[in-house]
């Protein structure tokens, strides 16, 4: 069995999640690859699969309004990296967010 992987899908899904609207028919474009991943008909290396699901779940939460725990998305994104780096990356991400606006801030570093 062969699958065509839409390499633009994750970045377009992330853009849609930031905008809060399905900009490019993302929801329907995810149907086949997610079904194939869940049926083990499509396989990615673990870090790629975690990143793929993190972006997909971010899209589902912020565009489709599905009740997905924030920490599920965070943990999937952190699982892309070496476990020894997770705490450091999470701390840097949290330190880079303005507590009032929730927007990223420039640290000047």
How is this structure best described in words?
By secondary structure, the chain is an all-alpha fold. The protein is built from five helices and no strands. It has helices spanning 9-19, 26-38, 46-62, 70-78, 86-95. Helix 1 runs parallel beside helix 3 and helix 3 packs antiparallel against helix 4 (70-78). The longest helix has 17 residues, at 46-62. The model has no long low-confidence stretch (mean pLDDT 84).
The helix/strand series, from N terminus to C terminus, equals HHHHH
Helical segment tally? 5
The helix-and-strand class reads: mainly alpha
The mean pLDDT is 84
Q: Give the fraction of residues assigned to helices.
A: 55-70%
Uncertain regions spanning at least 5 consecutive residues: none
Spatial extent as radius of gyration: 15 Å
The global form is globular
Distance between the termini: 48 Å
Number of separate strands: 0
* Percentage of β-strand residues: under 5%
Largest sheet: none
Tag the structure with descriptive keywords.
single chain, globular, 55% helix, 109 residues, mainly alpha
Q: Brief overview, please?
A:
By secondary structure, this protein is mostly helical. The chain is built from 5 helices and no strands.
Secondary structure blueprint with pairings:
Layout: H1 9-19, H2 26-38, H3 46-62, H4 70-78, H5 86-95
């Amino acid at each position: 069995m062969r699958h065509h992987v839409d390499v633009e899908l994750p970045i377009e899904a992330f853009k849609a999640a930031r905008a809060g609207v399905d900009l490019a028919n993302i929801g329907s474009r995810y149907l086949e690859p997610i079904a194939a991943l869940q049926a083990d008909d499509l396989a990615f290396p673990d870090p790629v699969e975690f990143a793929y699901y993190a972006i997909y779940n971010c899209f589902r939460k912020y565009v489709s309004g599905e009740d997905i725990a924030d920490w599920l998305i965070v943990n999937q994104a952190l699982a892309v990296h070496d476990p020894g780096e997770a705490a450091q990356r999470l701390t840097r991400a949290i330190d880079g967010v303005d507590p009032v606006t929730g927007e990223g801030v420039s640290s000047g570093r």
